Fold this sequence. Notes:
The protein contains nine helices and eight strands. The protein is an alpha/beta fold. It has a single domain (2-224), classed as P-loop containing nucleotide triphosphate hydrolases (Rossmann fold), CATH 3.40.50. It has a five-stranded parallel sheet. It has a three-stranded antiparallel sheet with strand order 3-4-5, covered by helices on one side. Strand 3 (69-72) and strand 4 (80-83) form a beta hairpin. It is globular and about 50 Å long. The relative contact order is 0.22. The model has no long low-confidence stretch (mean pLDDT 93). The structure holds cytidine-5'-monophosphate. Residues 14, 36-37, 40-41, 98, 101-102, 105, 131-134, 182, 186 line the site of cytidine-5'-monophosphate (C5P).
Amino acid sequence: MADSAPVITIDGPSGSGKGTISRLVARALGWHFLDSGALYRGVGVAALRAGIDLSDVEAMARLALDADIRFEDRIDGEPHVWLGSDDISSDIRTEEAGQAASKSAAQPAVRAALLQKQRDFQLAPGLVADGRDMGTIVFPQAELKVFLTASAEERARRRHKQLSEKGVTAILPALLREIEERDLRDRTRSVAPLVPAADARTIDSTSQSIEDVVRTVLDWAAPLAR
Ligand code: C5P
């Protein structure tokens, strides 16, 4: 659609910094922001709460269609995620919810149920969408596609730091193992695997600051924001 709002997609593995960077880019441009992982995490939390076996294809398909999961961006604060009238914004951030999200996300029916929900975020003046398949499946027509990577060790270190700042004790080698496990599942699943779009520009953030990466993306985005 020639006249629809422009989209910047930022895909990459967990811990690559894409959440922080996507939000900062969206704020700098004054555009909408979608954290698609939060929707998958919402499905994971809904399944855990309902006691549904995450590998039960039919039950998960039903859940993804029926559960009222909403992502709400807040310009002046943290985005919020709702399951019905329950604010599950902090529940979705646990490692357990991340693993449940990754297992749910490997199911085609779950992905299909979330597709339109994600596309509905494409609104003027523009959208920055963060995830795994934003540039390949959800917004293949996006004007700018970024694939953000960082070494698994660096991603585990960042996660460790983030958790210690919250007062949560975590063991670095265990975090690394969890990250590698989730990466493997995300990269090798048959539906919408984590791969860069053919026309994506890659940034390796292992030794770059958040500010550096944001600056690079904003430079690339400059022609879109005029
Ligand atoms: O990005 P985040 O770590 O919050 O995503 C949680 C999980 O949701 C990922 O490990 C991945 O399996 C899944 N996901 C996905 N497609 C997206 C976003 C997230 O499969 N677009």
